Amino acid sequence: MGSDWTAGAALGFACRDTGLPPGAGNAQAELVIAPRLLAGISDRPMSYQEHLRLHGTMPNRAGAAGGPRSWLLGEITQAGLRGRGGGGFALAAKLDAVRRARRPAVVVVNGCEGEPMSFKDRVLLQSLPHLVIDGALCCALVLEAGDVVIAIEASSLEAHRSVERALEQRANGPSLPAPLPRLATVPPGYVAGHEASIVSFLNGRQARPFAAPPRVSERGVDRRPTLVANAETLAYVALIARYGAGWYHQVGYENDPGTALVTVTGGVRHPGVYEIEYGQLLSSLLDDAGGLVTPGRAVLLGGYSGSWVEIGSALRLRLAPGLLRQMNASLGPGVVVVLPQNACPVAETSRVATWMAEQSAGQCGPCTNGLASISSALADLREGIATRRTMPDILRWAKLVTGRGACVHPDGAARFVVSALRVFADEFEDHARLGPCEACARQPVLLTPGSRLGTG
């Protein structure tokens, strides 16, 4: 990954601040809502006292029917909160799966942002660590978990330091009746952020995914039932615990309530992490990011496991999970990348496909052989040494690797490549005949660890 983003330089608000308190919202007027997840954020980490002044202490709910655990699970269920790490699974269902195991549980905060184009969880952990910690402790309360772990990728130094300071601030202060979390530093890598990889690492093995069963909800850390949830999901749990499911539904779009964090990069004037209301037009999000630096060619939604959408169609999209699914698209881990007209989509796709192949855990054929074959064929297309079988072979291999890996890594890589071949068909055909173009040598727009973020 690249260097840590500072909150002041990397943040914007697609949900424009109206001066309302964090618990307020307006479902009638698009974008006229107060920031929720990013409320109170600044260019330095929010202290515990500042956090309590902004959001207040956690409600006790001791008198709630069924007790505080039952009340909190009910609110999460009624809210319909879904995970924000890419899979979009209902958090209440994950909690229920762990509860059904009826053994001492573990809660793991997934702060390992392996997706190179996503910075939202890192920003939360750097700037608003107490919101994430509160959410993790809430889930520990629901599950009666005896252990809470915050897993952060080794390269996220500022996030690690911020969470460490936050835990020190809490050591002598008021907190939930749950164990204070401990920190774990996970090696970098795309598949290292998979929940099974994190559990494997916490169990003393390599950070590599394993095939289920058993699921981590049944046998995870130390063979105990384990809930793994990403930082943004848990930050929202902390807000729902304070303001309730009704508040959560005050904004959003039809069956997709709430707001979400999105990392906007590529050919925009102000790349950064933005809070959007579900259902917001992509065109208005790009306006909030300062507009396009140069004319756009396409938009990548969902990062390197996502898909490309031609710019004209993309600008008409509403960013709601249900609507995007109808177009075989997704925000995934909250990524929007604008590819400028003057960038080479063939070079960008080939370079990312090579990197994705290199990220293989090396434990199953679809990754080890399939992704390597796809990336090699894409390189041939880029260099103009492809045969008439190259394009059909890539599409055939992409179909073969999908659904057959130990994890979903090959599925995502195949989705990214197939959508590129569809949206940039003319450019791929030109490269197959003529070889590299002038734009191939431009600064990359799509980031891989060690590269610099391009803006076109």
Question: Any key phrases for this structure?
Answer:
456 residues; alpha/beta; Rossmann fold; Ubiquitin-like (UB roll); de novo design (two linked rop proteins); 3 domains; six-stranded mixed beta sheet; four-stranded parallel beta sheet; 17 helices; 12 strands; 41% helix; 13% strand; globular; disordered N terminus; disordered C terminus
What's the SSE blueprint?
Layout lengths: L6 H4 E3 L34 H8 L11 H13 L11 H10 L5 E6 L8 H8 L1 H15 L3 E7 L3 H14 L11 E5 L8 H8 L23 E5 H18 L3 E2 L2 E2 L1 E8 L5 E6 L4 H7 L7 E6 L5 E4 H4 L6 H6 L8 E6 L4 H14 L6 H19 L6 H12 L7 H15 L1 H10 L22
Helix pairs in contact: 3-4, 3-6, 3-9, 5-6, 5-7, 6-9, 13-14, 13-16, 14-15, 14-16, 14-17, 15-16
Q: Quick recap of the structure?
A:
The chain has 17 helices and 12 strands. By secondary structure, the protein is of the alpha/beta class. It starts with 6 loop residues before the first helix and ends in a 22-residue tail after the last helix.
